[in-house]
Amino acid sequence: MKVLAVSTAGLAAALACGHSSAQDASSGMEAPPVEVTAFRVPVLESETAQGVTVVTRREIETRNATTMADILQTVPGVQVDRQGGPGGISSIYIRGSDPEHVLVLIDGVRMNDPLLARGGAYDLSAIDPATIERIEVIRGAGSAIYGADAIGGVVNIVTRRPTESGVRVSGGAEAGSQDYRAANARVTGNTGRVQFTAGAATLEEGENSDGGELQLGTLHGSLAIQATDQIELSAFARASKRESTAFPDSSGGVRLAVIRTLEQRDADETLFGGGVAYAPSEQWRVDLRLSRYARDEDIDSPGVAPGPGAPFFGIPGTRSTTELTRDAALLSGTLKLPAQSDLTVGYERQDEDGDSRSVITGLGPADFRLERETDSWFAALKTKPVENLVILLDVRHDDISNLESETSPAAGARYDFPNTGTALKARYSEGFRPPSFYSLASPIVGNANLKSETSRSSELGIEQALGNSVRLGASVFRTRTRNLIDFDPTVPGPIGFGQIVNRDSVETEGVEVFATLKPMQRLDIGASYTYATADIIDSTAELRNRPEHRASLSLAWQVNEASRFTWHTVYVGEFRDFSVPTDEIEMDSYSRTDIAYSYKWNRLTASAAIDNLFDDDFEEFVGFVNPGRRFRVGVSVAF
Question: If both were cysteines, with which of 6, 178, 255, 523 could 623 make a disulfide (CB 3.0 to 4.6 Å apart)?
């Protein structure tokens, strides 16, 4: 038999290719079942017991997205913001959680950087959509599967893979207003026993903008070889370089910043790895995967001028260099059991080495270095004890050097009522996030006695299909996070003022509602609404960037066999934010609409798009003004 590359989450993410979970708009034929590769055992999207959204390559191309924020803005329960225009950091919040509570994976490799002052949250602007095959968004704690950092959820990104047999060459270029330029090219091959991909992409915007500039370049490749009917070998690699300028966080941006010098960030990321899968029979298989992730970043920040009064004395300028390496090895075995059951058990080892060197104006050097080793054991079970009932059980134990060990369980169930189109699902899960290297070791505000943040999450959902044309769903969720890590200016730190401490518990709860409709053969409509509250227990303080209300409306119209039109509108309700010039203030709600049109002629596709169609004036951070309406045109070709 041939090895199934979806055997473990890591190997699956490196090898999987995308499928659409909706009906094909042009043919009306129902797409094949979608496997969610982020789980340890093979799980179809129709078997999940929690909030899961799969975004395929077809959907990314249909909406002509230029950023991860564009792709994810219509996913229920997800808020993605960007600090102003080009060059600003882009953060993701899942169900009201902090960005550092969301684990981001690329080809199964964790990308969160514990050296960063923002707590390890990954900057989504470092990912070019042209390099993505599919995205899986898992809402709710995922530590039972992945361990650290997955308190709020997981974003599993799979880069481009062969989708057709033979050798294929493709590429494209796009240009637009606001100095936007992008280009990409790739070659893929699939001979049955050998699959390979090699690609490159570049993106630039904001060269002449007052608010900042972004330059992003990416190289990526993968190889899979079916050595025998029982053994499959795989390898993958990715390298990216991000150079940007922007106003510093909390500065008040282009509208309010007193210091007009921009902060400069230059980051280099590399990841590579490989694996072997051995399946002597259809009943069991073994997977081994090795990977390395390295990230270097140079930051030159002018600082933030003092605000109107105490305690807003400003932020001193900083020049820093950070270097992180993360080596990981994962060994797992999967066994097929009676009752349509799959059991996976495994061990994972992770070694991290972080070095930070910085000079702070007025304070001098603030260097630190830290190492961390994590040994993890995990087990996952999917079973169908009776017809139409799926039970998913996960547990993971993480033994982390110099911190308390953590055990994270999760249990979920889904029942599809026969002949009704109705499904009920429920899940309970626990998560944790260890203190970042910066929080533990910074000589300015660090605290070596910090404990890990922990969480308990639960959700209950219902889905209803009405024939093949309508699908409805709703979920209620609740998460309580303890030992929240935060900066407290009233606690004397290593140099006498302010320190990072464990001090608060946060409770988030809310509801997600979605609907997909196909009123006619070539028209697909999707809508979602999320209500989420995030409250600090026993405190009147409010968390930043947590809108209670968020809604989206999407339309995809296959005009004819050659042309397609899409419309996407997002509404974000009021939220709180802070800047040094203004203190904490209430930010206005806003909406944004994007449209795109494409026409395919033989192997050539031409496209046109308008971002922020109605030129809405809004800010996602105090003073960081949205760039406004943007026009784009592009062309792509495939052979």
Answer: 255
Cis peptide before 308 (omega within 30 of 0): no
Phi/psi of residue 384, each to 5°? -125, 80
CB 77 within 8 A of CB 93: no
State the DSSP string of 334-374: EEEETTTEEEEEEEEEEEEEEEEEEEETTTEE--EEEEEEE
Token pair of 338, please?
């009676």
From CA 592, how far away is CA 616, in angstroms rounded?
7
Which band of pLDDT confidence, cut at 50, 70 and 90, is reported for residue 4?
A: very low
Q: Work out the number of other CB atoms within 10 angstroms of the CB of residue 28.
A: 12
Rg (CA), the chain: 24
Interacting residues of 48 by C-beta distance below 8 A, sequence separation 6+:
36, 392, 412, 414, 425
Sheet (strand 132-139) strand order? 52-56, 132-139, 153-159, 102-106, 109-110
- Could you identify the residue written with the tokens 């932020």? 315
**Distance between CA atoms of 266 and 268, rounded to whole angstroms?**
7
Cα–Cα distance, 610 to 405 (Å, whole number): 50
Where residue 194 falls (left for φ over 0; alpha for ψ -120 to 50; beta otherwise) is beta
* Phi-psi domain of 440 (left: phi exceeds 0; alpha: psi -120 through 50; beta: other): alpha
Residue 321 and residue 368 in contact, taking contact as beta carbons nearer than 8 Å: no
E strands, 247-283, are 263-278
Residue-wise pLDDT tens digits, 163-174: 888 999 999 999
Beta bridge partner(s), residue 111: none
Residues ≥6 apart with Cβ < 8 Å to 106: 127, 157, 159, 238, 271
Nearest to 172 by CA among 201, 206, 197, 132: 201
What is the rounded average pLDDT of the residues 471-486? 94
In this predicted structure, what is the pLDDT of residue 309? 59
What is the pLDDT, as a whole number, of residue 1?
A: 36
Report the range of poorest mean pLDDT among 87-91, 144-148, 206-210. Answer: 206-210
Are the beta carbons of 98 and 214 closer than 8 angstroms? Answer: no
Mean pLDDT, the chain, whole residue set: 90
Determine contact, residues 56/25, Cβ cutoff 8 Å.
no
Q: Return the sign of the alpha-carbon dihedral for residues 246, 250, 254, 260.
A: negative
Look at residues 155, 152, 131 and name the one whose alpha carbon lies nearest to residue 54. Answer: 155
Q: Residue 59: which H helix or E strand, with range?
A: helix 57-63
pLDDT tens column, 137-164? 999 999 999 999 999 999 999 999 888 8
